[in-house]
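[step 3/7] fold_predict: job queued, chain A
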Amino acid sequence: MKNPRAFLMIVVSVGIGLGAVVLASRWISQQAATVASSKVVVAAINIDLGTPLTPQMLKLADWPKGSVPAGATEDMKTLDTRVVKTSLLRGEPVLESKLAPIGATGGLSAVIGQGNRAMTVRVNDVVGVAGFALPGNYVDIVVNTEDESVKADNVNKSISKIVLEHIMVLAVAQEQNRDETKPKVVNAVTLEVTPEQAEKLDLARSVGTLSLVLRNQIDTSVVTSQGSTKKDLLNRVEQPMVAQQPQVKAEVKTVVSKSPARKVVAVKKPSYEQVEVVRGATKTIEEFKPATE
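[step 4/7] structure written:
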């Protein structure tokens, strides 16, 4: 070989590389041995809510022992025929909190929470929030009706009021899949409500028209509103009514000024003497003032 030094450097480099590979693999094996793992039952395929589990839907997977989620199991026999009450993705652990009680059959009834009810209301593309109200979402229920407490005849009685808040959508039409994010315009929505809420919802459906209001998934706040009327919508301020006072007719009193009574002074008429004078056939009486003494 013409350059033995270069050959020697190549041999040394290969030797160093092989040594590094051996050391790295040994270190990785030691690290893997120090991390304990356990078996956990996970979903082998995507599983929709309300579906009874079968062995073909499940498999065992290695899971770090220190981070095994609560409710997980490694015995697939205990999960046979159990019904999931929420959708499971492939590789997701099957937890007890995601399963319906033992003995529950498949379908929508297994998804309903303890003490709650499922009620279906008719919707359209507007009422159903353009199809964005999907299973697993939460909505508020608004009813538009007439306020019978308003007694005035010339006042518009229409009012819109939120009657139910934070109601979960169980299904749209006949679909319960919660993994679909594409909006679906349907003609019916099934809601999960309490018995008291079911009564309110049925009454609201019979007295007016319903609308769904989509809300944030993690927003659980409750807002108490008084409802909106047509006057509130037009932002009109009610003018205070001024009581009309009755007109008082002014009485005209005629004041008659009484003049002081005049004293009547008796005037003493002078005394006269009368003399009867006869002239032919004519007889007259003449008066003569007596002569003063």
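[step 5/7] annotate
The beta strands are 37-43, 58-64, 117-122, 138-146, 158-172, 188-193, 209-215, 228-229, 273-279, 282-288.
The chain has three helices and ten strands.
exit 0
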